[in-house]
Write a structure and sequence with these properties.
The complex is a heterodimer of chains A (about 425) and B (about 100).
Chain A lengths: L2 E8 L3 H12 L5 E4 L15 E3 L8 E2 H13 L4 E3 L3 E5 L4 E6 L3 E12 L3 E3 L2 H4 L9 E3 H11 L1 E2 L3 E5 L3 H12 L3 E7 L8 H8 L6 E3 L1 E7 L7 E6 L12 E4 L2 E4 L3 E3 L2 H5 L24 E3 L10 H19 L10 E5 L3 E5 L2 E2 L7 E8 L3 E9 L5 E10 L5 E6 H5 L5 E7 L4
Parallel strand pairs in A: 1-2, 1-8, 2-5, 8-20, 10-18, 12-13, 12-18, 13-14, 21-28
Antiparallel strand pairs in A: 3-4, 6-7, 7-8, 9-19, 15-16, 16-17, 21-23, 22-24, 24-27, 25-26, 25-28
Chain B lengths: L3 H10 L6 E3 L4 E2 H8 L8 H8 L12 H12 L18 E2 L7
Antiparallel strand pairs in B: 1-2
Helix pairs in contact in B: 2-4
The chains are: A alpha/beta (about 425), B mainly alpha (about 100).
Chain lengths: ~425, ~100
């Protein structure tokens, strides 16, 4: 006999916390959060740097502080939490199987589910860095866990591959703990991280950033990394012979991308987008499975936790509406398509009945642009809306609001594109 | 590979089988402890990997690595810093944070 809950939230990080609180506020009184770690907070617990919550709280909090605000909000609700609990399977009819040492094997059934599993890091094997396999090659997030949660140093002389935010943050973190960070190496001609991190983590510590370069060999024949070879790459990201530089180091930190963790989504039969590696979602964050919603990094990798919170609150409220029979399931009225310079949009499908006044659409551009105009066009190519923005970059997620009154008059599919502003 | 009923019975008997350490391959603490207490025990993180699989999945040990390291340290009664990745000389940790002296 399965244990029933109105809403089961898989993951107690910022996404799961915000979704649970929002669902509670909208009237759901039987909510269970399942979290695999021993505490709530998710990845924020190891992000001890500040900069979280600039938008949401108008303050610069550290990761644990931001998570702490939502955990305290949770105390004022009747939401139940099971930590140290690993979800093993989710079936299409919303049965959830989980396990922990205390309760043993859990057989649960949910009225609605919010998926908030976050993401994992891309590995050395996935990008095929040649060379030996000594100790000292780890992902930046794993290093961050060792330093910030367990209190261990992972190396003394460091080369970082990837200028995404995690790599930049760890460049500073390792330096502050006495390591020498020799270089940050980035294969693209631009950095994937937030501009403020380039300044505060590399420039402020005189750590050189090598754009359009990559690590082409890792050498370590006696157990530990001894040196790496870094080469310049051409416009096809192929190494250019003759440009090799050697760095004597004992540690390589990899910050080469995050991948949404959707194994559970896949086994449940949820449609996954190949562009985001996350579930295809509707305007209210519902997946292709009715009653199953998703939010946060499991849908698409975010840069700002404030956006995660907004998106997760949307999912929590939608789950509440679903349980109360107030929302519409089923097919989309409008689909969003990526035009020039746009990599993906979340959501991808819209049902007008579930939109209140406007729907927020998150997307990423595929090029660094000083300024540009975001164009929203209908099936005929006629412009429906335009938004002017400055400083667009792949590493900084954008958001636009599409008003319902506009969508009601528009024939889909709707294309979202960005036109780069010409030099004056 | 066990059925739900078999899993429930196993965890009830030994809670260590209820703590999932490697989430990609669903390897529990119980299985890791079994490997470490077998007749020819592994003595490194990669050794444990070869014996019962934690670290072979999609995150390649990013999530379970620190936890496996901690379990090995405790079971072999050595400081965590001494646990090797694979062969001798392949330690992952070089010290504690907040210690004096840099590179």
């Amino acid at each position: 006999m399965a244990e029933y809950h109105d809403l089961i939230v898989v993951g107690g990080g910022p996404a799961g916390l915000a979704a649970a609180c929002a669902a509670w506020e909208k009237g759901v009184k039987d909510i269970l959060i399942l979290e695999r770690d021993k505490e709530l907070g998710g990845i924020l617990n190891q992000c001890i740097h500040n900069g979280f919550g600039l938008t949401y709280f108008k303050e610069e909090l550290t990761g644990p502080e931001y998570a702490g605000r939502f955990i305290r909000m949770l105390y004022d609700t009747g939401v139940t939490v099971r930590t140290d609990t690993m979800v093993l399977d989710i079936s299409p009819d919303r049965r959830v199987q989980a396990v922990n040492t205390h309760d043993g094997f859990l057989d649960l059934k949910a009225g609605a589910i919010v998926l908030a599993m976050g993401c994992r890091e891309r590995t050395r094997g996935a990008i095929g860095i040649p060379g030996d396999r000594p100790a000292g090659v780890l992902t930046a997030g794993a290093a961050q866990r060792y330093l910030n949660i367990e209190g261990y140093m992972v190396g003394k002389r460091v080369v970082i591959l990837g200028s995404g935010d995690i790599g930049l943050i760890m460049a500073r973190r390792m330096t502050l703990e006495g390591a020498k960070v020799l270089a940050c190496v980035e294969v693209m001609p631009y950095s994937g991280g937030l501009n403020r991190n380039i300044v505060q983590c590399l420039n402020d510590f005189d750590i050189p950033l090598y754009l359009s370069h990559t690590i082409t060999d890792i050498v370590g024949k006696h157990g530990r990394v001894e040196k790496v070879v870094v080469s310049a790459v051409d416009e096809n990201r192929a190494p250019i012979p003759g440009t090799e530089m050697e760095f004597d180091c004992d540690t390589v930190l990899l910050s080469v991308g995050l991948i949404p963790e959707n194994e559970l989504s896949r086994t449940a039969g949820i449609e996954i987008s190949p562009r985001t590696n996350g579930p295809v979602v509707f305007e209210n964050m519902e997946t292709s499975l009715p009653g199953v919603f998703a939010a946060g990094n499991v849908v698409h990798v975010h840069d700002l936790v404030d956006f995660v919170t907004a998106e997760s609150q949307r999912a929590g409220r939608a789950a509440a509406d679903y349980l109360a029979g107030r929302s519409v399931s089923g097919e989309a009225d409008l689909e969003l398509v990526c035009g020039d310079r746009v990599n993906y949009t979340v959501p991808r499908k819209l049902r007008l009945a579930n939109i209140d006044k406007a729907v927020g659409v998150f997307f990423r551009v595929n090029k660094v642009m000083e300024a540009g105009t975001i164009r929203v066009t209908d099936a005929t190519g006629a412009e429906v809306a335009a938004f002017r923005r400055e400083h667009l970059a792949p590493g900084e997620m954008e958001q636009i609001q599409l008003p319902k009154v506009l969508l009601e008059k528009t024939a889909g599919p709707i294309t979202i594109s960005v036109e780069e502003a010409k030099e004056e | 590979e066990l059925s739900s009923k078999e899993k429930a019975a196993l965890v009830a008997e030994n809670p260590a089988y209820g703590r999932v350490i490697c989430r990609c391959e669903t390897i529990t603490k119980g299985e890791i402890l079994d490997a470490l207490h077998g007749p020819i025990p592994p003595v490194s993180i990669d050794g444990v990997k070869r014996r019962c699989n934690p670290g072979m999945g999609r995150c390649q040990g990013g999530f379970c690595g620190p936890r496996v390291q901690e379990i090995i340290a405790r079971e072999l009664s050595i400081p965590q810093q001494q646990v090797p990745q694979d062969k001798a000389g392949s330690q992952i940790l070089v010290g504690r944070t907040k210690e004096k002296g840099g590179a």
